[in-house]
Design goal:
Layout (H helix, E strand, L loop, with lengths): L4 E5 L4 H12 L3 E8 L6 H12 L4 E6 L33 H16 L3 E3 L15 H14 L1 H4 L5 E3 L7 H10 L24 H13 L11
Parallel strand pairs: 1-2, 1-4, 2-3, 4-5
Helix pairs in contact: 1-6, 6-7
EC number: 6.3.4.20
Enzyme class: ligase
Family: Belongs to the QueC family.
Length: about 230
């Protein structure tokens, strides 16, 4: 019997790297996919390539998109500053329709590969308030995926797997460490420098730092010097 396949969305960050390790531990042959979408924190793409290799992805693709063409986010528009203090509501680091765009491309690759499973590291507990990280969004997208594809029409049910969606950042870290993830290879910062060093101030850095403290695990993140 051939090994089951999965497409895994990887950004090079803590959450998606943990998801790749989980998929591998569940026996999947993992095909990882990242997106060069014009994000300001481009060192994450190198981190995604590193972690995909270390965690044994069968193949790693980087898809080039230009979300700077529409802007609307601090991650794709240099005129919008990345906030370094907590803000209410949906933050300016939200990228319009990003997960919908990414999942749609991953869905196409899954059809080509004959995969029934797509893994994504969305989280509805320790997250920044992004609407496309909510369980109801994922459930709705899975319904759409099965309506919109040949695979779904022919009865091969497609699943969007979200193993982190109800976990705290601390629990995600604990699970990743148990699976042998080296978080020193990952980049989560919204404004990391070219060496992948984190600012330590943005929302993503704050959540990551807090997660390691709450997990009681030493933080291996490489931070920029003061």
């Amino acid at each position: 019997m051939s090994q089951k396949k999965a497409v895994v969305l990887v950004s090079g960050g803590l959450d998606s790297t943990t998801v790749l390790a989980i998929a591998r531990s569940e026996g999947y042959a993992c095909y990882s996919i990242s997106f060069d979408y014009g994000q300001r924190h481009r060192s994450e793409l190198l981190a995604a390539e590193r972690t995909a290799k270390v965690l044994g992805a069968v193949e790693h693709k980087v898809i080039k998109l230009d979300l700077r063409a529409i802007g609307g986010s601090a991650l794709t528009d240099d005129s919008i500053a990345v906030p370094e203090e907590e803000t209410g509501g949906i933050p300016v680091t939200y990228v319009p329709a990003r997960n919908t765009v990414f999942l749609s491309i991953a869905l196409g690759w899954a059809e080509v590969l004959g995969c029934d499973d797509i893994f994504i590291g969305v989280n509805a507990v320790d997250f920044s308030g992004y609407p496309d990280c909510r369980p109801e969004y994922i459930a709705a997208y899975e319904v759409m995926a099965n309506l919109a594809t040949r695979a779904g029409a022919e009865g091969n049910k497609l699943h969007i797997r979200t193993p982190l969606i109800h976990l705290s950042k601390a629990d995600i870290i604990k699970q990743g460490v148990a699976l042998g993830v080296d978080y020193g290879l990952t980049v989560s910062c919204y404004q990391a420098n070219d060496q992948g060093e984190a600012c330590g101030k943005c929302d993503s850095c704050r959540l990551r730092k807090q997660g390691f403290v709450q997990a009681g695990i030493a933080d291996p993140t490489h931070y920029q010097s003061a």
